[in-house]
Design a protein that fits this description.
This protein has helices at about 15-30, 50-65, 70-80, 85-100, 100-110, 115-130, 140-150, 155-170, and strands at about 5, 70. It is mainly α. It has one domain: TerB-like (Orthogonal Bundle).
């Protein structure tokens, strides 16, 4: 999968330092995944430990990369919502994403009950906001969010009020 990193300055509200960190880290994220199978699997590093904060960060990274394009709005939301403060913190989350398919992440969360219902809803609302931050949610982003909803045990009816507010918030047509 090829990922395009859009780094137009006019809409980017990251500080120059955080922008450098974000672009470096997101380009790192988009390198071809290591899928070495077989004999050499013993040399793979272990997945970084998963915490609720890292679960939020990796969830946002998964949806940001789903459509193959990373926009400044998405990167800004990642820093704002996940509270990323260092290159190391972001790289740790990226290592997890590169080592773990999102479906495996969802299975891991399900088996450990790492997140509370409120944390799951927070992740879903911010994934949705990220997917709509460029004006439209791509089909890959929509499909991923629906899988997260299902895995998190959140019904359409339960999520709809949040979804409606996010759609309204991101409706740029109101001012065109």
């Amino acid at each position: 999968m090829q990922i395009i990193v859009n780094s137009e300055r006019e809409n980017n509200f990251l500080s120059p330092e955080k922008e450098k960190i974000a672009i470096f880290a997101l380009k790192y994220l988009t390198k071809t995944k290591q899928n070495f199978m077989g004999l050499f699997d013993v040399f793979k590093s272990e997945k970084p430990a998963l915490t609720p904060k890292k679960a939020l960060t990796v969830s946002l990274l998964y949806v940001m990369a789903a459509d193959g394009e990373l926009d400044p709005e998405e990167v800004g939301l990642l820093f704002q919502v996940a509270g990323i403060n260092s290159k190391a913190e972001l790289e740790d989350a990226i290592k997890y994403v590169r080592a773990t398919k999102y479906t495996d992440f969802l299975e891991q969360e399900k088996s450990t009950n790492l997140l509370s219902k409120e944390q799951k809803m927070y992740i879903l609302t911010n994934m949705t906001d990220s997917s709509l931050s460029d004006g439209t949610a791509e089909p890959q982003e929509q499909a991923m969010i629906l899988k997260f909803m299902e895995a998190f045990g959140i019904s359409d009816a339960e999520f709809k009020p949040y979804f409606d507010v996010i759609v309204f918030k991101n409706n740029r047509k109101l001012f065109s």
